[in-house]
């Protein structure tokens, strides 16, 4: 099953009111020391994943940028 990857543009995922159903696949550098189970991201706010692609409207409204697919 593919996972759809997005990076939060302006703020970390938990604070940006994003659509439900996400999880980190790359930890933001500021919490990487608490999330040893996933790799540290080069993006300032990390990378999150969904089991479904988000619409362009969802991305725009929640300030997320599509960065690819995994798996």
What report would you give on this structure?
The protein is mainly β and 71 residues long. It has one domain. It has one helix and four strands. The radius of gyration is 11 Å and the shape is globular.
- Overall morphology: globular
Number of helices: 1
Helix content: under 10%
Query: Roughly what is the average pLDDT, rounded to an integer?
Result: 89
Task: Describe the main β-sheet briefly.
Answer: 4 strands, antiparallel
Q: N- to C-terminal separation?
A: 6 Å
Structural class, from secondary structure content?
mainly beta
**Widest sheet, order of strands:** 2-3-1-4
Unreliable parts: none
Order of helices and strands: EEEHE
Radius of gyration of CA atoms, rounded to a whole number:
11 Å
Which strand-content bin applies to the residues? Answer: 25-35%
- Strand segment tally: 4
- Overall number of structural domains: 1
């Amino acid at each position: 099953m593919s996972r759809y990857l997005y990076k939060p543009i302006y703020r970390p995922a938990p604070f940006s009111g994003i659509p439900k159903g996400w999880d980190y696949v790359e930890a933001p550098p500021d919490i990487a020391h608490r999330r040893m189970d996933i790799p540290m991201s080069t993006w300032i706010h990390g990378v999150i994943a969904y089991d479904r692609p988000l619409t362009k409207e969802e991305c725009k409204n929640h300030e997320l940028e599509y960065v690819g697919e995994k798996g």
